[in-house]
Design goal:
By secondary structure, this protein is of the alpha+beta class. Helices cover 33% and strands 20% of the residues. It has a five-stranded antiparallel beta sheet with strand order 1-2-3-6-7, with helices on both faces. A two-stranded antiparallel ribbon has the order 4-5.
Length: 206
Amino acid sequence: LMIIDAGLAICEYPHPCLRRACVPVREVDDDIRLLAARMFELMYEHKGCGLAAPQVGVPLRMFVVNPSGDPARKDLEAVYINPEYVKTFGTVHAPEGCLSLLPLSTAEIPIPRHTMIEIAATGLDGVRFVASCSMRDVGYRSRLCQATQHELDHLQGVLYVDHAPPAAKAWVAGMLGYMEEQFRWKVEKAGKSPPMAELEGAMEAF
């Protein structure tokens, strides 16, 4: 994964990797383990509790979570590679935020999520496992359930605001437009971001 050697950073909307369906990880090797370690570092640096590979410009089906957001709680860290839903049940609404959409994350928008999920994934040891959690659980497990669904969406190119209720759609559209304007400024005026065509090319090459 040459992209790791070049350094990783949080991709902000409208980075094209955020809207792509990711490809499966072919093999859990040292590159994947290094990617997971770097993703945890970035997640903690930005005060998050979950981070998907496309959020760092790597369109692979994997994400990391620590529902506590505390780097000292290594016991709560988990890596999900090639995850998929096994079972889902019910619906509950709760506010969310996203490191790739920070200007929108201050709003308390109720996002619908499954009340209970069971997912299958592969760990860093290369072994397939099945895990379940519920939004009705207490403490960290409830946050884990929400974060897991949020990150699974990222792997399909879906953002949490895509689930926003009708009453919030106009505000969300306005904020996304603002972020698109900021991106154009970074490209055209400040020279701080590659043009969209260059980013799209990098995704295709990957």
